[in-house]
Design goal:
Elements: H1 2-26, E1 32-35, E2 41-44, H2 48-83, H3 93-104, H4 108-111, H5 118-125, H6 139-149, H7 157-160, H8 166-177, H9 183-187, H10 192-218
Antiparallel strand pairs: 1-2
Length: 230
Amino acid sequence: MNTVFLDFNTRAKEVNDYFIFLESLEKQTTKLALFDTRGKYQIQSLDPELAKTLKANGFLLLYNLVESTMRNAIEAIFDEFKNQAISFDQLKPEIKMIVLQNLKKRSPKKIHLHINQISTDIIIATFERKELFSGNVDAKVIKEIAEKYGFSYQTDFAKTKNGQNLVVIKHNRNDLAHGLKSFEDVGRDKTIEELLEIKEEVREYLRQILENIKTYLDNQEYLDVTTGNP
């Protein structure tokens, strides 16, 4: 999980820096300087239409943070299974189902080369990072994942709003990605103050979810205690 936290902090800083820059442009504490026809700088205020595009782009950055963080976190769970040499028989029934669903998607020709000890290797050999998400991550999906794997999805509502803004981020990202809305359409609906608030709530929500997953791994809550495994 150390690598996951490092990547999360790096991406969160990128998002934070972007919104700080955008806020400074809107408040004119930072201004644009353009060359005129005489080759001299002319100070120019941020064009309102450009501001909408920049705000809409913020949703793409936020969604990238959300999906990459959750993808890395789930991969870290499977890395833990590998590092601890966890066998299929040791896993909770819910996680066994995940492994079997992964197996169903795989071609035997593709995975048999990666399996020596089937009880342990089948878990990792059938995992495919790229298939985890595809523009669909929001708090509801994260809750469903948490329930499948067995880690907590509870966060401090006062700081995170329990991730309720993730669905707004997801919809705006998908509308932009599929050309259903223009950047201007998406950007006009939120003020920079609202975006900064959303950004802070989302960052704190993801951080707390990662802490929950770290606790889950540290306590080996993925094991089936009914089988008497250590």
